[in-house]
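User: Can you recover a sequence for this backbone? Please restate the input before giving your answer.

Assistant: Of course. Working from this structure:
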């Protein structure tokens, strides 16, 4: 005697209909045993997808990848240029660091040499080969042709650089000497008589190459005796000197600097190379 169990199924439910027919959704056999009644229903196997006649394998027909949007937009191009630009700038800074290091080493080598007597006539075209070279010259300072470049700050105080022509004896050409810094309150020569030697003097300093004015510095106004940057050629023309620039040096001494400032004697610069070399920082930045 066999007993057929019928379970009411909701209309349209494939899952439950397949179960009622003994077909598992994932191809597994199902077995229905009614333990209470001792009934065992026949086991059926579900058809696998490969047994279907319209089945197509992904291996035989791989999917086509479809690109959406534009192929190469400007944003992608800019993003790709960023590392290339940074690499190029970093490589350029490495080269600049090597050049600046060698330049500073060459200038420092000139500083440790003994002062070179300045010849009577200086070849202006070869000054760049002797930049930062120690030189010595003898003559009389022409205080009547003195020029003040400013404003210049020294230890937080405003002041000026004193530029005085040095008239050398015989047929030697006159040169321009940057004697150093004085405070603004001693701008008038009458207030600093101690800083105006009248006899023959010996000037020891650094032979320097003329500078180039940047776009932010105003032009000099010599007719009003106002100078904002050292225009060597212009100053030499005004004083009848050769465009030769010598910066007087002194040993760094705080007490001596205070004594010079009080007497109105210009404070000379130390004998050192003051070139900026920040290319190592720029390398890490890029």
């Amino acid at each position: 005697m066999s007993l057929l169990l019928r379970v009411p199924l909701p209309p349209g439910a494939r899952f439950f209909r397949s179960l009622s027919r003994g077909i598992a959704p994932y191809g597994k056999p199902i077995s229905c045993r009614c333990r209470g009644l001792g009934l065992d229903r026949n086991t059926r196997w579900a058809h696998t997808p490969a047994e279907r006649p319209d089945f197509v394998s992904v291996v035989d027909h791989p999917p086509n990848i479809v690109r959406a949007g534009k192929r190469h937009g400007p944003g992608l191009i800019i993003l790709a240029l960023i590392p290339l630009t940074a690499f190029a700038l970093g490589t350029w800074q490495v080269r600049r660091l090597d050049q600046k290091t060698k330049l500073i080493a060459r200038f420092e080598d000139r500083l440790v040499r003994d002062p070179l007597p300045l010849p009577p006539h200086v070849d202006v075209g070869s000054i760049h080969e002797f930049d930062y070279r120690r030189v010595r010259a003898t003559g009389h300072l022409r205080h009547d042709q003195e020029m003040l470049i400013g404003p210049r700050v020294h230890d937080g105080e405003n002041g000026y650089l004193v530029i005085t022509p040095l008239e050398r004896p015989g047929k030697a050409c006159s040169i321009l000497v940057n004697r150093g810094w004085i405070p603004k309150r001693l701008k008038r020569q009458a207030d600093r008589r101690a800083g105006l030697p009248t006899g023959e003097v010996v000037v020891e300093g650094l032979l320097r190459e003329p500078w180039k004015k940047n776009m932010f510095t105003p032009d000099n106004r010599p007719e009003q005796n106002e100078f904002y940057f050292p225009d060597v050629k212009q100053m030499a023309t005004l004083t009848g000197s050769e465009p030769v620039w010598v910066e007087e040096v002194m040993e760094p001494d705080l007490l001596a600097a205070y004594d010079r400032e009080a007497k109105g004697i210009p404070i000379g610069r130390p004998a050192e190379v003051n070139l900026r070399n920040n290319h190592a920082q720029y390398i890490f930045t890029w």
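That completes the design. DSSP finds five helices and nine strands in the chain.
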